[in-house]
Amino acid sequence: MRFSTLMIQGQPRLAVVDGNSAIDLAAARPGAPSDLRAALAAGVDLKAEGAAACASSAPRLPLAAQTFAPLVPEPGKIVCLGLNYFDHAKEGGRDKPEYPWFFYRGKSSLVAHGQPGLCPKVSSKFDYEAELAVVIGRNVPRHVTRADALQYVFGYTCFNDMSVRDFQKRTPQWTIGKNFDGTGGFGPVLVTADELAPGAAGLRIQSRLNGQVMQDANTSDMIFPVDETIMLLAQCMTLEAGDAIIMGTPAGVGQARTPPVWMKPGDAIEIEIAQIGVLRNPIVAEG
Asked: Could you report the per-residue pLDDT of 246-260, keeping only the tens digit for each?
C-alpha cells in the first residue's frame, strides 16, 4: 500500500494513494488521524484504514495536481547515515567505515516533493545525495536483534540529503552543513514494507540533475543495511513510531566530480528509487 502527505486547506493531511489518485484518509474514515506520525504512534492499522478508504466512495484527488508536504512533517527523530556505500566513501577519500557515521537532521530542514530546495546565500557549494528513507512504524525495543529489526519498519520513501559542503567541512561533525532550511527532500510516496524486498534491498537508486544521471546504484550496495542499522541504533536509543532513518548515498555526488558540480538556481534535481517513486525539487535562491 502507498501513502502520502498532502497539503489540503493549508494543512498537511495523510492520504492513501490509489493508482494516480489520492484519498484524504481522515475525510474518508472519520476519526482516523490526519498525520502519519500520530497515526503510527496511536497504533492505527493504516493498511486496513487505507484499504477501507480505497473501497469507499470518498473523493479521489488527482495526485499530479496536489501540493505535497514532507512525508512525515514532524518526525520525532531524523537519523542519517554518512558513507554507507563503499564507492561513495572511496570517492571521498575514506576507507570503508567499521561503524556507521550517524548524524541528525532537524525537521525545519525538510522540504516536500515539488517544493524548492533552497540554494543558500552563504555558499555556492550545494550538493545532492540520493537516499533511501525508512519510516519506523512502532517503537523499537532497546537492543532489538537484527533478525527482529525489520518488523518495526512501516515503509520506505525517497530522500535527498542536500548538503552545503563547505559548511559541512567546517567542523569534524556534519550537522551544520546538513541542516540548512529547505535542503531535506522527503517523499512523495511511502511504500509499505510488505510490498518490497526485506530492507528494501535490490532497488535501483538514481539522482538526476536537469535530466542527467549523476548517481546510479542499488540499495543492496549499502554497507550497513536497514536491519543492521536499526539494531545498532537500538543499542543506544529508543526508535519511535514516525521516526525516520536516512540510509546514505552512493557514489557520484557533485563534490567528488572533476570539476565539481554544484546545484544552482534554475536547476531541478530528481531522486528515483525503483518500486517507490520519484522525488523532484526545483532549486531556487534563498530569499
From this structure: 999 999 999 999 999
